[in-house]
């Protein structure tokens, strides 16, 4: 078979080369006989590094020069971070493929000395140049960073920075007292993960990750830039052979999600200067938060409409049960002390620990939680949280487990919950409390619309009262295992719950 060489236009940054190299390898793997040659192209956004993007005149800071090369047939296709693309693209440039999306979260990389600075209530300097991040992250961090001693709110100071990933991340390693010293830097998880797939990029990244702590930001309070984590592969409409080679890389589910997010930009306007984020989950739920160009604040969840306007009354485990402490056995206590990674299903599981210092920030354990409610409670007690699942249930942890950036060991994850919790694949249950049935909550009897925050109160009342009373009500519930249990039971009486997050 005659070998065909395709030229791929890419920015010259370490990250751009890493992600374009991955695309090149995939094109070659999926098209035997095709060889891809990278062509490095410098863009305005790569050259002007002394100003925030919001202060640079014009637009398409990272794409104009690549578009020029593509339109002038200097390259056959280009690769972009899709969040950098304008909504309207010049003819005859076409979207050839959108590969499967990487995680769209932001992540803050802190130097480990941040713990001592928080204890002393010293200012925490965090670098980012994104108006969206500057709008959303400060409020979240005030509750998400651990508090010590007096419990005072952390003193946050945000610094506008530009540059490549390695340039920005290197600033957390500057010596104390340096004007360039930062305590943390906000970056896109996707970019860091893609660097791990490149030999040179991975070596440099993990060198810079030494002596740092991660904080993966949840999507509901801190939604990402529309299309963050997705790549856009573009070519020309008059090159059918090239389009055919690129088509196998396309992932339709990713395109569906990023279209929903970019539709928000179309609806409200904005681009690199916008102060709002939009993140679509695989469940179809879309989180939107920030400021419209008009200055109006928006906080919306779309994609999971309620059956009607009637408010749902939330039924939690505490409405149905009393809780009994279950002291840890010697084995569980020993394993919890030794574990690198702990998932805390509910803040209550931590509260019932006889020795809560086992998962304190000083232990350097990596702690994940189900949602921000637990996050904030634990942070107020001095616990460093690495990330959460936006209230989606433990199943939503699976995409994080295989990431090179996080390096999550498969055999060391402990699941801290109640004794009745079912086992989760790849995690060992450590129960710190149990439930004792108290009775039927009055709110359940009086309300026509019920939101089930977990499956335990649902199953208890189903068992005690029988299905007939459930027929008279409308039901909603959280995602994950809760949805699975509630959906299965209600299906037996011809009902179906609305699945949404009311965290």
Write a short abstract of this structure.
The protein has 503 residues and is α/β, with parallel strands linked by helices. It has a domain at 305-503: Rossmann fold, CATH 3.40.50.
Describe the fold and architecture:
α1 (14-30) crosses α7 and α17 (455-465) packs parallel to α19 (481-491). α1 links the parallel β1 (4-10) and β2 (34-40). The longest helix is centred in the first third of the chain and has 17 residues, at 14-30. The chain has a domain at 305-503: 3-Layer(aba) Sandwich (Rossmann fold), CATH 3.40.50. 31% of the residues lie in helices and 23% in strands. The protein is globular, with a radius of gyration of 25 Å. With 503 residues, the protein is an alpha/beta fold. The strands form five sheets. Strands 15-20-19-16-17-18 form a six-stranded mixed sheet. The chain contains 19 helices and 23 strands.
**Count of DSSP-assigned helices:** 19
What is the name of the CATH architecture of the domain at 305-503?
Answer: 3-Layer(aba) Sandwich
Q: Per CATH, what is the topology of the domain at 305-503?
A: Rossmann fold
Total strand segments? 23
Decide which structural class fits the backbone: alpha/beta
How confident is the prediction overall: mean pLDDT?
90
Please list the strands of the largest sheet in the order they lie side by side: 15-20-19-16-17-18
Helical amount among residues, as a percent range? 25-40%
- How far is the N terminus from the C terminus? 57 Å
In what range is the share of β-strand residues? 15-25%
**How would you sum up the global shape?**
globular
Low-confidence stretches: none
Strand count, sense and barrel status of the largest sheet are:
6 strands, mixed
Given this structure, which CATH class of the domain at 305-503 is correct? Answer: Alpha Beta
* Rg: 25 Å
């Amino acid at each position: 078979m005659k070998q065909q060489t395709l030229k791929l236009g890419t920015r010259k940054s370490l990250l751009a080369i890493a992600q374009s190299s991955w695309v090149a390898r995939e094109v070659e793997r999926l098209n035997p006989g095709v060889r891809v040659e990278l062509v490095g192209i410098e863009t305005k956004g790569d050259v002007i590094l002394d100003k925030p993007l919001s202060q640079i005149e014009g637009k398409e800071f990272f794409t104009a020069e690549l578009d020029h090369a593509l339109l002038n047939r200097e390259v056959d296709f280009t690769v972009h971070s899709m969040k950098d693309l304008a909504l309207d693209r010049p003819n005859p440039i076409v979207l050839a493929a959108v590969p499967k999306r990487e995680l769209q979260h932001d992540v803050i990389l802190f130097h480990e000395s941040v713990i001592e600075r928080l204890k002393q209530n010293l200012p925490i300097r965090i670098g980012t140049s994104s108006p969206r991040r500057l709008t959303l992250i400060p409020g979240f961090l005030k509750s998400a960073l651990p508090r010590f001693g007096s419990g005072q709110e952390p003193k946050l100071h945000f610094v506008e920075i530009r540059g490549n990933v390695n340039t920005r991340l290197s600033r957390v390693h500057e010596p104390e007292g340096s004007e360039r010293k930062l305590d943390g830097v906000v970056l896109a998880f996707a970019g860091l993960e893609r660097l791990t797939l490149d030999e040179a990029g991975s070596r440099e990244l993990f060198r810079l990750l030494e002596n740092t702590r991660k904080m993966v930001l949840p999507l509901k309070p801190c939604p990402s830039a529309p299309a963050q984590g997705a790549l856009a592969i573009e070519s020309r409409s008059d090159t059918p052979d090239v389009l055919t080679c690129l088509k196998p890389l396309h992932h339709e589910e990713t395109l569906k999600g990023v279209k929903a997010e970019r539709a928000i930009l179309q609806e409200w306007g904005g681009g690199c200067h916008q102060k709002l984020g939009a993140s679509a989950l695989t469940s179809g739920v879309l989180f939107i938060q920030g400021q419209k160009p008009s200055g109006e604040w928006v906080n919306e969840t779309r994609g999971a409409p309620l059956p009607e306007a009637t408010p749902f009354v939330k039924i939690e485990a505490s409405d149905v049960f009393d809780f009994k402490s279950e002291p840890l056995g010697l084995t569980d206590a020993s394993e919890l002390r030794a574990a690198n990674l702990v998932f805390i299903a509910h803040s209550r599981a931590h509260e019932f620990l006889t020795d809560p210092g086992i998962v304190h920030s000083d232990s350097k354990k990596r702690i994940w939680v189900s949602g921000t409610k637990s996050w904030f409670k634990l942070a107020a007690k001095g616990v460093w949280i690495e990330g959460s699942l936006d209230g989606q249930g433990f199943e939503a942890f699976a995409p994080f487990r295989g990431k090179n950036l996080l390096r999550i060991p498969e055999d060391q994850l402990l699941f801290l919950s109640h004794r009745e919790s079912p086992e989760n694949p790849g995690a060992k249950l450590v129960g710190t409390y149990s439930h004792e049935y108290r009775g039927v909550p009055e709110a359940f009897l009086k309300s026509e619309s019920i939101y089930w925050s977990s499956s335990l109160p649902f199953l208890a009342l189903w068992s005690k009262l029988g299905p007939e009373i459930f027929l008279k009500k409308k039901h909603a519930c959280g995602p994950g295992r809760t949805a699975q249990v509630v959906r299965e039971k209600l299906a037996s009486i011809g009902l179906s719950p609305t699945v949404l997050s009311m965290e």
